[in-house]
Amino acid sequence: MKVGFVVNIHISAMRPQDCLQEYLESLKKCIKHDFHVYIIDNGSDTEYEFVDDTLKNKITYTYINDQWNSGVTGAWNIGTKMAIEDNCKIIIGYADDLIWNNSINHFISYIKENYNDDTVYGPVSNQGGNNQTFPEYQSWIKPTGQLHGFLWGFTDQLYHKVKQPNGDFLDMNTAGLDGKWGGQEIILESYKARYGINFIIYGPAWIYHKKFTAWKEAREYEKGTEHHVQLYKGKIK
């Protein structure tokens, strides 16, 4: 099963290309599954030079420059739809302030072994939020009432169960959203009642989370704004 990694870029005080390169280097080093990376930049007008020669021809990717500034939720919707179109069976949504290790392979394998249309999975982390924060990995696997939005794993079958009429995975019309940056946790929590979705914390996967919060407000969010999307496909360069 092919895995689609959907990552949104932090546009912050730190140079975005430095942050993203660190995450991509750890991804290349650790992941043992067939995968493709979907990099969504919806907070700047710049196509960043992300990586150096060490990653050339090592990671296949699609870079999406979307000038509709819709925060994490909008970025994950764009990347998830593209991953589904590319026949990815497992989707991992997250931000670029994570550093991977080999435990992510166990996380992906567990989702494959329990392939279904009703569960979203999350790992534990140093800064996971909710009930996912631990100094190291845990031996248990248990259900939870809510998952923090730093990393989710789910199947294409779950996407098809909950997708909206416009193809979005996350319903941006959900009541209670802040209308700009956040909201994915609120939307996912609403899916428990709407679609009978379950949440599982997979303790044997522990992911280091820098938890950047300095988002740059590059432009005002306006519903109905025309999308100007440019795609760059190929190997990391």
Question: If you had to describe this structure to a student in words, what would you say it looks like?
Answer:
The chain has helices at about 15-30, 70-85, 105-115, 155-160, 185-195; strands at about 5-10, 35-40, 60-65, 90-95, 100, 120-125, 140-145, 150-155, 200-210, 230-235. The model is unreliable at about 215-235 (pLDDT under 50). It has a single domain, classed as Spore Coat Polysaccharide Biosynthesis Protein SpsA, Chain A (Alpha-Beta Complex), CATH 3.90.550. A 6-stranded mixed beta sheet has the order 8-4-1-2-3-10, sandwiched between helices. About 25% of the residues lie in helices and about 25% in strands.
Core attributes:
globular, 5 helices, 10 strands, Spore Coat Polysaccharide Biosynthesis Protein SpsA, Chain A, six-stranded mixed β-sheet, 237 residues, four-stranded mixed β-sheet, disordered C terminus, alpha/beta
Task: Report a brief summary of the structure.
The chain has helices at 16-30, 71-85, 103-113, 156-162, 184-195, and strands at residues 3-8, 35-41, 60-66, 90-95, 98-99, 119-125, 141-144, 151-155, 198-209, 229-235.
Report the β-strand fraction as a percent range: 25-35%
Largest sheet: 6 strands, mixed
CATH superfamily: Spore Coat Polysaccharide Biosynthesis Protein SpsA, Chain A
Say how many strands there are: 10
CATH architecture: Alpha-Beta Complex
**Segments where pLDDT lies below 50 for 5+ residues?**
214-237
In the CATH scheme, the class would be Alpha Beta
Summarize the SSE layout with pairings.
Blueprint (H helix, E strand, L loop, with lengths): L2 E6 L7 H15 L4 E7 L18 E7 L4 H15 L4 E6 L2 E2 L3 H11 L5 E7 L15 E4 L6 E5 H7 L21 H12 L2 E12 L19 E7 L2
Parallel strand pairs: 1-2, 1-4, 2-3, 6-9
Antiparallel strand pairs: 3-10, 4-8, 5-9, 7-9
